[in-house]
Protein: Cyanophycin synthetase
Organism: Actinoallomurus spadix
Amino acid sequence: MHLEHLRRLNGPNVYIARPVVIARLDLGELTGRETTDFPGFADRLVSALPGLAEHHCSAGRPGGLLAAMARGTYFGHVTEHVTLELSAMIGRDVCFGRTVYAGTPGHYDLILERPVDEPAETPLVGDLLALAIRTVTGLLTDGEVAFGAELAALAATHERTSLGVSTAALAAAARRRGIPVRRVDDLNLLQLGYGRHRRTVWAAMTDRTSAIGVEAAGDKMLTKRLLEGAGLPVPEGVVVTTAEEAVAAFEEIGAPVVVKPLAGHQGENVWIELTDPAEVAAAFRAASAEGGEALVEAYVPGRDHRVLVVGDRVVAAAELSPARVTGDGRSTIADLVAAANTDPARGDGHDRPLTRLTLGDTERAHLARQGLAPDSVPNPGQVVTLRRNANLSTGGTSKDVTDRVHPDVVRLCRRVASTVGLDICGIDLRLPDIAAPLAADAGATGVIEVNASPGLRMHLAPYEGRPRDVAAEIIDRLYPPGTSGRVPIVAVTGTNGKTTTVRMIAHLLAQDGRRVGMTTTDGVYVGGELVYRADASGPLSAAMVLADRTVDAAVLETARGGIVRRGLGYDRADVAVLTNITDDHLGVDDIDTVDDLVEIKALVAEEIRRGGHLVLNADDPRTAALADRPRVRDRDPVVRYFALAADAPPVERHLRAGGIAYFVEDGALTEAHGDARSPILPAADVAGSFGGLARHVIGNALAAAAAARALGMPADLVARGLRTFDPYDLNPGRGCTFRLEDRPIVVDYAHNPAAVAAVGELTRRVWRRDGVAAVTLPGDRCDELVIDTARAVARSFGRVVVYEDEDLRGRRPGEMAGLITRGLVDARPGVHVHPAGDLKDAVGIALGVSAPGEPILLLYEKLQPVMDLLDALGAISPPDAP
């Protein structure tokens, strides 16, 4: 049994709304074998991983997996559960798993949930799967498995690559508010919100945090000068560069003093309450080891406190105690430290609520000052401090005192934050009692430090007292209550008409001055300008638009390939538009039937916000039926059907129930709400519709109007937008007509039976005479779909020029031309087939076999070569109206 490959879906997907990894597993020699073929296997497995006994499996209750193994289940299913259990053992918070047949005997896809903020490219998932495979195969016989060391290494990797405590709390607080959150790579950097509401945070630092404030807070002497100049209480201090200067400063200030790095952090190399010149000199050497400078300042008696200011509000306060242990009369200090470190709340760095205790040089020196050593045995109840400074980063603990903060202290801290210029500020104070008025005596109160990007864990999970949701306070500062951090999102999918509909909707939304971000198969556009040229109909391009701070609304073409390979690039669209679902892309990405396509494209309908709008094509039964899917109904959407006529059965039923629909009535695009009718504009006025004769363009216009109206666009602006949607500028390559040698040439991207039938109908309705088709088709479709599409060409055209695109998409030269010809002759034995070598040859032959005035339909794979050729040949665009 081995892992073939992994595929990561980073957004909502057809399985769940959270990220998953899809692992293709080859069972190898275990193909066809089940758990009951190996006596004792289940017992050995559960003995090695006792947590498996609680797995529900499909039974929906604890013990479901055990029952399945007792009956006999395949080893792909077992490996799925073992991977989930190993994930739980290293602290990965995941619970969803599913195993599905991958179409070949012995091959299965394991769909496994991923933590939402886990870096996409981490090797952790693959390593967990590899360990699960070794565990399962190792227990098939009487063998044993030992995975403790490997699992510990994986746990360390997971902890190292997870968000820090502060950043994770901010992400959780934003999600509780419904604000979109995206982690940037493996950093503690978050992008919040969409479009013009996008903000960034890095731990407790935001894109509103002043760079000058950060620099000032990082220089302790500069902070001291700023605060002193504002009349705020700070201890007297001197910057020194030598041990001799440190001792001189000590003598000038007077004992006791504090020595600390000038730009230090996290309490490292801070020496407190020094009373001896030799101690001061030694402390200087430790404190200046990296920067060469240190700060000697007067010691302020009292208790250590950290006050958190967000904006102009004090939102939390904690009293800090130094790292310490309590004796039991039997254990050494070293033993007590080891016992304290077994607390799962303690970890390395800032990844857990508490930091592990250590017995380094600083701790040993502090113990020596108390007449103790690591092997000393304290008396029962004796509290032994390991450090003098109270800092969580060095093992200290916190006690919440928010409710006790005196108004004097509140005012002091607000002035401190304002003076330094920080929007989020951690202020270290020493004072006798935070609940008492500030004493008038100089030296009774001191602002010891001001911290930019302060740690939040002492407030989120204090050792004593009430936790404070300070992350929510920061999020509320960025996004005042009542705001969502979102911009309107319209997601468009379907088989045909996606790109045109996307372009139409974007143009309509721009009519009232919105700056629209748009993704299409030819690129990403912002404000009508191409900013990224590519096939941009997947999640990466959607994320690109939603990260643009200038975007007021997003219209996203959401194609099958992106959904299958990466999931959606957004969550909770406001409007979902489904144009139609018909034969296309069959044989690609394990999509074999139209029903498979329905399951994939339905995700766009299912992932809308609660109460959002769902625009469905009532003329296509598969699309219309999506309104009845359980996951769609759970969203309670406002359904807006569109159809070419009001007598479409779903429209009639919907209107009788008081619903909203769009159709053509009395020659006009019409909005209906129950019995009420409101014409929008004459169908003949829709730009690019050939005076209303292009029925598929009218269908796209109805869908676009429905989406724009769902977002509150006035009907008159919708009408103006549809009139001015010039296809040559705004929808190139879709039904655009050129005139060359007295012949109209219709350039279109039709590449499946339904699309070809639509443009074939268009040429007959507009020119009312036979025409010529010059065609090529995508090589990545299955043979049967290529042949069916060619049959559709033959039903509309008796003369067909066949050429192959330069990009054969894996086909052999001549293979596609052969399939197309086969389909043409099959549907119309008398068809005249004219082989061509390339695009230029095909256009020349089409001109030669056509008569003046006869239309030529030119189907293409890539638009730019077509436009370059037509320009070189002197084609006129746009021609006179036919």
Remarks:
- The longest strand covers residues 608-617.
- Residues 327 and 530 are 70 Å apart (CA to CA).
